[in-house]
From TrEMBL:
Organism encoding this protein: Candidatus Methylobacter oryzae
UniProt keyword terms in alphabetical order: Nitrogen fixation
PANTHER family linked: IRON-MOLIBDENUM COFACTOR PROCESSING PROTEIN, IRON-MOLYBDENUM PROTEIN-RELATED-RELATED
Disordered: region residues: 152-184
InterPro entries: DiNase_FeMo-co_biosyn_sf, NifX-like, NifX/NifY_domain
Name of the protein: Vanadium nitrogenase
Record flagged with keyword RNA-binding: no
Compositionally biased intervals (Polar residues): 173-184
Amino acid sequence: MIKVAFASSDQTHVNLHFGAAERFVIYQVAPGQAELVAVGEFVPAVMTGDNRFKDAPFDPNAFIMDEVSTHPDAVPMSHEDKVASKLEFLTGCAAVYAASIGASSIKRIMAAGIQPIIVNTGSAILDHLNEISIALTKGGLAWVEKAKAQSKPANRFDAIAEQGWNGDEPGSSAPQNAPSVTIQ
């Protein structure tokens, strides 16, 4: 089971730039199922990088101004501030899907152990969830394989420790149907 985030204004499509995203939805994905587990809302931020106009409709009569935001509630903030709060929300996610991600954000996302994935604006979250679910059982997505490997305990003793079983405690006994081990 892995957690995956999507930059989405409508919780149905990946349609936001990572840095300017006002909403992320996080799903817990397992083979054959996906469950919405969190929705994060963020204050609109002024976009300042090269990708700030990437998803805007082309208008040959328009002129480009630096530091322009058309959102009335937009708050000017540094790139680092808006990314830090988003990375904090995305803690524990294996990947984040967005319509665009700036180069410095990609570096910070990867440093946090999260795979950044850029997809076409408007792509359906359900399609991505299906692809991830299939990859969990059949493979095909390298980042899913990496996430699966990182989520597994290193050995069976780590798994026992995670379950909290301690055979040395008074009154404790081995679990029913526990495999026997012969050591020579």
